[in-house]
Amino acid sequence: MSDNKLQLAKREVTGKKLKKLRQQGQIPSVVYGGDKDPILTTSPYNITEKVLLNAGYHSPIDLDIDGTNQMALVKDVDIDPIKRLIRNVQFQAISADEVVEATTPIDIVNFELSEAHKLKLAFLQVLEEIDVKAKPADLPSSLELDAGKLISAEDVLTISDLNLPKGVELADKELDPETTIVTVYDPAIEAAQREAEAKAAAEAAAGLPAGSGAASAAGAIACAVCAGFGDDPPAASPAGTSPGFPAGFALPSRSVSPYARQ
Fold first, then answer.
1. Helix, strand or coil, per DSSP, at residue 28
2. Across-strand partners of 2?
């Protein structure tokens, strides 16, 4: 039995009439899968959003459809691109004894204990979630990736560094185990490089001879290195934020909303 529960009511309303349903604070949805026909459903917006944020794409939800119990996973959430509100939800009906696929967030842990952190380096997470398969009871809410062994700039952590829980395996068997999840970088040097590039662009726009700012640009980078990198950088600089819909549930763009699948 899942910790996530949601009551759905069957609906007859479809097409353009769904606009009125949404104005009444309801989210239209559909439950499909197994050997049954798809079931058109609806549920209150606020309650549904709370359950979706908690469950993400990786945790089962116990649905109550007009008194009939059905376990399901969230397969898709449609978001209004202007209002940033949920428009529709698709649930996939599943059973407790079948192996299912789910998108699971990757959490980076222990970076603050690494030598890289002591050197005032930061990390960029380039892969925030991954598809796994397992029985519903074994689906993890997230996968932890230990960053405590990172030492220097350009160190990386890959898929091969993930420790999968018992009963869980990657959905894509052909996925390259050397696919990068995390890479380490020096924020001070990158900041100096950006400053140098901005200055060169400004000089070009002003019609100054090309390269006139090269010496000062190189000096800025060297200064950043010699100064010990300045203030502490952020502990991490992920490619977006992970969610509201716990990373695995990415409904529009993570940088804008917790609802963004990337």
1. strand
2. none
The whole-model pTM stands at: 0.68
pLDDT per residue, tens digit, the chain (262 aa), is 678 999 999 999 999 999 999 999 999 999 998 778 999 999 999 999 999 999 999 899 999 999 999 999 999 999 999 999 999 999 999 999 999 999 999 999 999 999 999 999 999 999 999 999 999 999 999 999 999 999 999 899 999 999 999 999 999 989 999 999 999 999 988 888 888 888 888 878 887 665 555 455 445 444 443 444 344 443 443 333 333 344 444 443 333 233 333 3
Q: How many CB atoms lie within 10 A of CB 196?
A: 18
Between CA 90 and CA 25 the distance in angstroms is 18
Say yes or no: domain 101-185 is CATH 2.170.120.20: yes
Q: What's the chain's length in residues?
A: 262
Q: List CB contacts of 54: < 8 A, sequence separation 6 or more.
A: 3, 4
Angle between helix 187-205 and helix 214-226 axes, rounded to 10 deg: 160
Cα(133)–Cα(140) distance, integer angstroms? 10
Nearest 5°: phi and psi at 52? -65, -40
84, 77, 28, 22: which is closest to 52 by C-alpha?
77
Q: Are strands 86-93 and 68-79 parallel, antiparallel or unpaired?
A: antiparallel
Q: Which CATH number fits domain 4-95: 2.40.240.10, 3.20.20.140, 3.90.550.10, 2.60.40.10?
A: 2.40.240.10
Q: Which two tokens stand for residue 75?
A: 């397969």
